[in-house]
Write a structure and sequence with these properties.
The chain is α/β, with parallel strands linked by helices. The protein has 23 helices and 23 strands. It has 3 domains: 205 residues, Thiamin diphosphate (ThDP)-binding fold, Pyr/PP domains (Rossmann fold); 159 residues, TPP-binding domain (Rossmann fold, 3-Layer(aba) Sandwich), CATH 3.40.50.1220; 187 residues, Thiamin diphosphate (ThDP)-binding fold, Pyr/PP domains (Rossmann fold, 3-Layer(aba) Sandwich), CATH 3.40.50.970.
Length: 615
């Protein structure tokens, strides 16, 4: 057997560089590259190894470990989970900074290969800089924090362990059912240890995403349920995108006359102009979608994990009078909510359902109701997003301005706060790839880094990041990375002087305004400073400007589109209004006892609302 002597780190990056994947009939590199922030735990081993493979496996220098992992995750999402990135850090804070990103990827079923440095496997120099010692178990390091938020975890204590562990990590990253973060903790000494690896281990390999067919009995159950339906509804989740089933869903829905509502991850599966597209579902849903969900007799949920924002905390569309079919590649998700499971790939499953349903269609009255509700909702969206000439516009009005300036080549990116809810309700999608909102983990700080990842995945698209002042202040460093790498973003910063979304929730549950808006926080006598976001962005190398009102914003968006570098637009907005039309109940626990009458009143409303929950 022919061998090649390499360090563990050299073998790892050589293997990654050899991995290929077939996408739309074309062979491309599986890994776009590696985000890296070097420290003493990875610079000598991984750093030296990455230096020698820059032409086949580029290294991208970031400014924050969590943010670079977010960018890598967004890259994978924008590529439909078919192309990936890795992220490497030093041990200690560099590693733990990536734990939040790992949790985000785990919640959203998104792949990223995490390569944190680790302490010495030999333990000879212990305790070392940044080592957190566990008094009762010396085998534990901070990297064990990755275990509950990784789909696959291993600590490579011997260089030959790569031979078995690395293929398993790649398999996890590409598995449609178990997709999520894979973490290989890399002790800094073992990164430098050499081993005679079989040359065959580094032979190029072409991966293909497997497509699981449905079980015959589950398929028959689903067909029988649909054939009895007079008022069917489809809920499209992120799995529709990842299975490349958007076109198939559009054709299936149109042929069968079934309205399609979308989750946050599923939004954009159908263009808003599609006759069956009725908008967002659930807590941040359209009135059209939620009314149809309440009246539907059969609901086909495709590629969604049916979290509480989708189901209205299990109060929107569950009940003995409805049949729920959960078509999902993940068995774990297809068994939720007392559903009829249909465990399979979304594209394959929709194809087999379509072939078996013959001439069946939803009822004529149901299709007419769908059209009526769709038109009514479109009028609401037009009205709430229109420019009303306010000095402090609402989030909805800002969204309207950005949406009107967006072309079919635009992707909007967002994550946390009130903006994702307003976007889910109001953004008019041009089709797949036009909407990228992380709301499975609702992670503040994802927005700008996520926009960078989307732009790296789809450089031909205009990427517009919408971000609140709170998230901007948490994570803005990758603006500098976007400028450094030449990946132009348009960033719209909505400054409502605090955490406006949670302030509204606080008051809705009876609480007093407290510690959310800056005016309600403990500050010096002069109050919290007014952040000049445009000046800050300019200091990071961006083009930028501050505007007042919607008319000025629309003009600035035109200038931003013609810019060649990242362009940041800041404007002040009103923290109090949100779109009241549409939506559904969301369970947020309210205190049983309080000295505030408003809280006691909110608790009574909470108890009444819980009576609608499925049990």
């Amino acid at each position: 057997m022919s061998t090649i002597r390499l360090t563990m780190a050299q073998a790892l990056v050589k293997y990654l560089a050899a991995q290929r994947i077939e996408v739309d009939g074309q062979e491309v590199a599986l890994f776009e590259g590696v985000f890296a922030i070097f420290g003493h735990g990875n610079v000598a081993g991984m750093g030296e190894a990455l230096y020698h493979v820059q032409d086949t496996l580029p290294t991208f220098r970031a400014h924050n470990e969590q943010a670079m992992a977010h960018a890598a995750i967004a890259f994978a999402k924008a590529n439909g989970r078919q192309r990936l990135m890795a992220a490497t850090s030093s041990i200690g804070p560099g590693a733990t900074n990536m734990v939040t990103a790992a949790a985000l990827a785990h919640a959203n079923r998104l792949p990223i290969l995490l390569l944190p440095g680790d302490t010495f496997a030999t333990r000879e120099p212990d305790p070392v800089l940044q080592q957190v010692e566990h008094f009762g178990d010396p085998t534990i390091s901070v990297n064990d924090c990755f275990r509950p938020v990784s789909r696959y975890f291993d600590r490579i204590n011997r260089p030959e362990q790569l031979l078995t562990s690395l293929p398993q990590a790649i398999a996890t990253l590409l598995d449609p059912e178990h997709c999520g973060p894979a973490t290989l903790a890399l002790p800094q000494d073992v990164q430098t240890f050499a081993y005679d690896y079989p040359e065959a281990f580094f032979a190029p390999r072409v991966h293909r995403i497997r497509r699981s067919p449905p079980d015959a009995y589950e398929l028959l159950q689903a067909i029988a349920a649909l054939q009895q339906a007079k008022r069917p509804l489809i809920i499209a989740g992120g799995g529709v995108h990842y299975a490349a089933a958007c076109d198939a869903l559009a054709e299936f829905a149109k042929a069968r006359g079934i309205p399609v509502a979308e989750t946050q991850a599923g939004k954009g599966a159908l263009a808003d102009s599609h006759p069956c597209a009725v908008g967002a579902i659930g807590v941040t849903g359209s009135a059209a979608a939620n009314q149809l969900a309440e009246q539907a007799d059969v609901i086909l949920a495709v590629g969604t994990r049916l979290q509480d924002f989708t189901t209205g905390s299990r109060a929107l569309f569950e009940g003995s009078e409805k049949t729920l079919i959960a078509l999902n590649v993940g068995r774990f998700d297809s068994l939720k909510h007392q559903a009829l499971p249909l465990s399979c790939d979304a594209l394959v499953g929709l194809g087999q359902l379509d072939a078996a349903l013959g001439e069946w269609r939803g009822g004529d009255e149901w299709r007419e109701l769908t059209g009526t509700l769709k038109r009514e909702w479109a009028e609401i969206v037009y009205n709430v997003t229109a420019d009303q000439g306010l000095a402090l516009p609402t989030d909805a009005q800002v969204i309207g301005a950005v949406n009107r300036q967006a072309g079919n080549d635009t992707t909007v990116v967002c994550a946390a706060g009130g903006l994702p809810g307003e976007l889910h309700k109001l953004w008019q999608c041009s089709g797949p790839g036009s909407y990228h909102v992380e709301y499975g983990f609702s992670c503040m700080g994802y927005e700008i880094a996520g926009g960078l990842g989307v732009k790296m995945a789809k450089p031909e698209r205009e990427v517009v990041v919408m971000v609140g002042d709170g998230s901007y202040l948490m994570h803005n460093s990758e603006l500098a990375t976007s400028v450094m790498l030449g990946h132009k973003l348009t960033v719209v910063v909505l400054d409502n002087r605090g955490y406006g979304c949670i302030n509204r929730l606080q008051q809705a549950t009876g609480g007093a305004g407290f510690n959310n808006l800056l005016q309600d926080c403990r500050t010096v006598e002069a109050g919290a400073p007014k952040t000049d976001f445009a000046a800050h962005a300019k200091a990071l190398g961006c083009e930028s400007e501050s505007v007042t009102g919607i008319a000025e914003l629309e003009q600035a968006l035109v200038r931003a589109r013609s810019a060649t570098s990242t362009y940041v637009i800041a404007l002040d907005t009103d923290p109090l209004p949100s779109t009241q039309e549409g939506g559904a109940w969301w369970e947020v626990a309210v205190p049983e006892v309080s000295e505030r009458e408003a809280v006691n009143k909110a608790y009574q409303g909470y108890r009444e609302a819980k009576q609608r929950q499925a049990r």
